[in-house]
Design brief:
single chain, about 400 residues, mainly alpha, Growth Hormone, Chain: A, 2 domains, 15 helices, about 85% helix, MFS_Transporters, cell inner membrane, MFS
């Protein structure tokens, strides 16, 4: 049985599966820093259209979550991952077409937008599929480990992908980005093909809206915690500029390094202490980090605030995710992962315009106070859910 494996054997098996998340998110990261500039400068469209090219992918991910959950539960997580990798490859084809149609701006933009929609749908298949595949292979007792490593793979890939995309375009041109995405997707498919699939769990498939209702409180906690990440990722460079500080990129790097470091060092605490306790502690640390960013008198303390925020946010997703996934039967696990992950997409989609409006009215520092209050609200919600969890457990057992 998977549960009797040694911890290192379990970890290696998990890493071999979240590798596909890494490949999928590398494909997402590569165009991230390049496309707004390309649409604005090369194709001649306005800033709104340049922003739309990025946000349309998040929209596609959000809308495709229910469909991805159904594929995982009914056809298997391995097949979902392979569909997703094929989708990544197809998005690379549309990017190649866009590069060849630069002299026809409207056609080039249309091709780019179609590719972004395909990539967004592929993201939900690869990300949720890898989690389902990992849990199916190493057992439900290792859910926290699978979700933690999946997060390390996705954030690590985005951190590597963005500068890699800039380097490729500067050296070779936009076409190289499309070709790289196609080749990476093919590599992922070749590696996934021989791997053993997780069995499809028999049993009743709960309707997606029913699953969404069950994980809603946990998802709201996740969304409130994710506002800090969205605020730092979107506005830290502008905040640094208004304060006349240098090295805003170091702030992002430190946030990412703390995030990954905390997951590697403390991921096992979720199984030992329970998801709610870990979430409460993490959201407290994240709130403190965001408050420090708000009050920071110099760049050094702002760096410390970013590091604390990354450290705190690191385990919020897996901690609340474990509790959310446990609320549904194993046969609907894919739907639960998809429904729960949807709240990150929603949070990141809302944070940009909302924090932007707050910054316009009260200054850039105020957005970190707003994010700190959101994280604290997430803490209070997690505390409430922790208090209510024995009652929910009794109801579930009785049912």
């Amino acid at each position: 049985m998977p549960e009797t494996q040694r911890p290192m054997a379990v970890t290696l098996q998990v890493v071999s599966i979240v590798l596909f998340t890494f490949i999928g998110y590398l494909n997402i990261g590569i165009p991230l820093a390049v496309l707004p500039g390309y649409v604005h400068s090369e194709l001649g469209f306005g800033a709104v259209v340049a922003g739309l090219v990025i946000s349309v992918q998040y929209l596609a991910t959000l809308l495709s979550r229910p469909y991805a959950g159904r594929i995982i539960d009914n056809r298997g997580s391995k097949r979902a991952v392979m569909y997703g990798l094929a989708g990544c490859g197809l998005s690379g084809v549309f990017m190649l077409l866009s590069a060849w149609l630069t002299h026809l701006p409207v056609l080039s933009l249309t091709s780019l937008l179609i590719g972004r929609l395909v990539l967004g749908s592929a993201e939900s298949l690869v990300g949720s599929g890898s989690i389902g595949w990992g849990i199916g292979r190493v057992g439900a007792t290792n859910t926290a480990k699978v979700i933690s490593w999946n997060g390390i793979a996705s954030y690590g890939a985005l951190a590597i992908g963005a500068p890699l995309g800039v380097w490729l375009v500067n050296r070779l041109g936009l076409w190289s980005m499309g070709l790289s995405i196609i080749l990476l997707a093919l590599l992922g498919l070749l590696l996934a093909w021989p791997k053993r699939a997780a069995p499809v769990v028999a049993g009743e498939r709960l309707p997606f809206m029913h699953v969404l209702g069950r994980v809603l409180p946990h998802g709201c906690g996740l969304a409130l915690g994710s506002i800090g990440f969205g605020t730092i990722a979107t506005f830290i460079t502008l905040y640094y500029a208004t304060q006349h500080w240098d090295n805003a990129v170091l702030c992002l790097s430190l946030f990412g390094a703390s995030f990954i470091g905390a997951r590697l060092l403390f991921g096992n605490l979720i199984n030992r202490m329970g998801g709610f306790r870990v979430a409460i502690a993490c959201l407290a640390v994240e709130s403190l980090g965001l408050l420090l960013l708000w009050l920071a008198p110099n760049a050094e303390l702002a760096l410390a605030g970013a590091a604390l925020s990354g450290f705190g946010f690191s385990l919020v997703f897996p901690a609340l995710g474990v509790e959310a996934v446990n609320l549904v039967p194993a046969s609907s696990r894919g739907a639960a992962v998809g429904a729960y992950s949807l709240f990150v997409d929603l949070s990141l989609g809302i944070t940009g315009p909302l924090a932007g409006a707050i910054a316009a009215g009260f200054g850039f520092a105020s957005i970190f106070l707003f994010a700190a209050l959101a994280a604290f609200a997430g803490l209070l919600l997690s505390l409430y859910l922790y208090r209510q969890s024995p009652k929910y457990r009794e109801e579930r057992n009785a049912g």
